[in-house]
Each structure stands twice: as structure tokens, then as C-alpha cells.
Design a protein that fits this description.
- There is one protein chain.
- By secondary structure, this protein is an alpha+beta fold.
- It has helices spanning about 70-85, 105-120, 135-140, 160-170, 170-180; strands spanning about 1-10, 15-20, 30-40, 40-45, 90, 95, 105, 150-155, 185-190, 200-205.
- The strands form 2 sheets. Strands 1, 2, 3, 4, 7, 8, 9 and 10 form an 8-stranded mixed sheet that branches.
- Strand 2 and strand 3 (about 30-40) form a beta hairpin.
- Helix 1 runs parallel beside helix 4 (about 160-170).
- The longest helix is centred in the middle third of the chain and has 16 residues, at about 105-120.
- The protein starts with a strand and ends with a strand.
Amino acid sequence: MGAGLGHTTTRAGWFDKRIEENMNTGTLRLVSILLLVVGTSGCVEENSGSGGGGGSTDIGETCEEGLCPDEAIIEGVLEAVNEARSTETDCGQYGVLPAVGPVTGDAFLHQASHAHTIDMRDNDFFSHTGSDGSSFSQRINDTGYSGSPVGENIAGGGTEPAGVVARWIDSDGHCRNIMNGSANQIGVGYVSGGQWGSLWTLKLANGS
């Protein structure tokens, strides 16, 4: 398994971005991103939202047909993520991270995740930066979500929610995002097509 890890300094702080990881199946590409800013007491998650509550967990309220993936995909990812978060997990270079509380699905986050996944497929790219130059946090906020963006994982390949979550857990940066106790809501994007046969996006945020 080969991996590349890069750090890019920004005015606000720094990104820990896993550029590419080729799993032994040869079919899955993974990227995770966690935006941190330096505060008076160290590193804390970026507070990009207004700090209010997020959107409804009922995907039907904002996800019209085509705006979100199939509900079975969402539920599968949600179940696998919460199973991982329910016990301490070895995240490699970040150590063994403690169990954290469950997350819930959020319609605005699903919409932002799915739109980015479609954008990657339709415009043939694989990045946290959208084809319009948007960041993951901008895409979340643009939906009307009023909470705070925490992180984003993307992947290429695979059709089973449990499988893609397992591969994220096996990758240090993605694992740390999933085990981040600051996140209490997620959004899921999934589309078939593209050079790996499918694409996935997982957005994590704090809606409280």
C-alpha cells in the first residue's frame, strides 16, 4: 500500500490532507481533509457556521429526487460510521482514539456531499476543491446549514457502504475524521460512474 501525505499552510491554519492512498484492491482512492485553526489554547476545529443547529435529519425535507443518494446508501454509511465510533479505534499515526458519540444524518449535509460527488464524476476530477473553486466548508454553508463544518472524506471505487467506511478506518487521516468527537452530524454522497466505477463523499459537521 502506498500513500502520500501533504501539509499546506494557510492564513487560517493548516490542512492535513491525504492526497492519495492505493489500497491492495487497487480500486479505491481515498482523500480526507480536516481543517484546523490555531486558537489561544492550541488547535481547534474551524467554526465556519453560525453555531446554530443544523438541518433536519429527515432527508425528505431538503432532498428532492436526485439531490441525495439512495436512502439505503445513507443508512448503510451511517450505521458503519456509528459502529466505528462506538469503540476505541487505532488511527495509526494519530494513535488509538477513544470511542465517541453517534452521529445523525443531516439533509443539508447529504445535499452538499451528493452535489460534490456528482461534480467530481461529471467534471472528471478527484479533489476537495470543487470545479467552481469551492472548499468543502463553503459547499456545506451554501446549502443553508447553520452548524460548523468539521471535515470531509472522499473515495473512489466500491459499492458497499460498510466497505468504504472500513477502508477509511484503515487510513490514518480518514480514521481521525470519523473518530472526531466534535462531529455529531454527517452527510453522504454516492454516485456510480467515473474512472473507478463509483465515487463517495462523507461530510462531517457539528450541528449544535
